Amino acid sequence: MKKTRTFLISADRLRARAGLALLSFALALNPFATPVSAQGVSDEDVKPVPLLQGSVGFITNFTGGQPDLHPIAAPVVLLPIGQRWLFETRATFENDLVQVPGRSGFHGGPVQKEVEYAQIDFIANSYMTVTVGRFLTPFGIFNERLYPAWIRNLQSDPLILPIGIGPSNASTGTMIRGGFKAHPQLNINYTAYFSALSTRSPVDSDRFAGLRAGIFVPSERLEIGGSFQHLLQQERSNLFGFHTIWQPTPLPLDIRGEYAHSRRGSGYWVEPAYKLSQLPFLRNKMRRTQLVARYQQFFAGELPNDALPSVNTKEFEFGVNYYFMDGLKASSNYGRQFSAAGNLNVWTMALTYRFVVPLGPTGSAQ
Amino acid sequence: MRRNWMLFCCFGVTACLVRTAIAQEHKESEKASESAATAGLSATNSIPSHDRASPQAFRSSASEDRAARIEGEKRFRTNCGRCHQPPHKFPPRVMATAIRHMRVRAMLTDEDMRLILKYMTQ
Question: What pLDDT does A1 receive?
Fold first, then answer.
């Protein structure tokens, strides 16, 4: 009886807290109502058209001598509604074709289909966008900004990618985010999100809340940021990470890196990519060629995680990308993985294509 | 206790953002009204010498347009190139959707978005 009463009181408290949180959120949004309608958004002169975009790719992996063919298509649908709303969703269709002993050729199961995210964005004003639905977890930068096959410099995932992004790389809940100029030389971006527990595969997600904030210095082309997440289930632990992107102005060089820490493991990756456009010969070919390297290290944590390596692992990768035209890229890379479970070679070759198909007339500006 | 603390922190951060946003909105609206007043004044003054002022106004507007385009290209290279190869130009309505998507995804500022859109649609 006492236990039941305690439960009822705590349930009431929880409800009150949830109410307070919602009220705080509503109060926070309310002052924006007038400026939003007064200011409007900057693309109001041009009426946006619904888009089907995304990427297709054919990725070939040789991990420890085992070949694996991986065709993938990831269409994105963008549906702008009015001046302030955007519905966006990305699905993935992929298959793993492997060699089966005793049979010739490559064989795969049924095509794996997944809706990676489906979210509605409301651009409240110049400083805040509210997102509701299933969204890519903004922990670090790789999952949200560098994940698509046509964007990533190396086709393999960093070892620490599963840290902080949930069981299916996405969250189910709500998020506020935005970017604004804090100083003539400084932009600030931020994201705060809450994800609810969902056990329905493949749209499963963990219950957590988190923040990410970054500072971008446009003149130096330098972005530095940090992520924090508090898990509201299981061991209720805290996760944190840091990220950076730097593009030195005098060189066609990108340097990206991330660090992530959790009780299930921690690690970092650093990835420089250099375009050969400064070489004085074969200019047309060289400006399309990019050399990439990535060094990463993973330290196993005290708790197990199926998506992370079970032992400390180091990996070095080196690759070449060639951009045939806007959106069509061939890449190839070699990597060597060192761990207590055994060292192995990783070869990857890939052809990726990014497409954009307008779902309506595009010519007129009105 | 920890939850209360987190809630308090979230509320504090939100309140700070609201305050910053309102302050900047006020500043921008003041700037806009000032420039509108100045433009109105110059228009009134230029009425008698309309024929002489027009080419000058046209020239200044063209140079402003050019400056905006150059700045737009700079912002385009700086912001888009941070994550991916900067794409080629798209038709205006396609670009309007793509830039709205990037505003959300890459958290572009309002100014960056406006300048990039201007550059990409010209």
Answer: 40
CB A272, CB A292: distance < 8 Å: yes
* Residue A304 distance to chain B (closest CA, Å): 26
Q: Which residues of B touch A32 (CB under 8 A)?
A: 18, 21
- Per-residue pLDDT, B12: 66
- B8 Cβ under 8 Å from any chain A Cβ: no
Note the pLDDT tens digit of each residue in B14-69.
565 545 545 554 555 555 455 544 444 444 444 444 444 566 666 677 788 888 88
pLDDT number for residue B43 = 42
Across the interface, of B22, B83, B97, the residue whose CB is closest to A145 is: B83
pLDDT category of residue B121 using cuts at 50, 70 and 90 = confident
> Could you tell me the two tokens for A134?
């299933």
| CATH code (residue A103) | 2.40.160.10
The answer to whether residue B83 neighbours chain A at the CB level (below 8 Å) is yes
- Block residue for tokens 């749209």: A203
Q: A140: alpha, beta or left, given left = phi > 0 and alpha = psi -120 to 50?
A: left
* Ranges of chain A whose pLDDT falls below 70: 1-45, 363-366
List the single best residue of A22, A24, A46, A77 to mutate versus B (max B Cβ within 10 A).
A46
Whether A334 is in a domain gets the answer: yes
Residue A197 lies in a domain: yes
Q: Which residues, in sequence order, are CB contacts of A113 under 8 Å at separation 6+?
A: A91, A92, A93
Map out the domains of chain B as residue ranges.
1-46, 59-122
CA of B39: how far to CAs of A174, A262, A356, B36, B44, in Å? 43, 57, 41, 5, 9
The number of distinct structural domains making up chain A is 1
- Return d(Cα A156, Cα B23) in angstroms, integer: 45
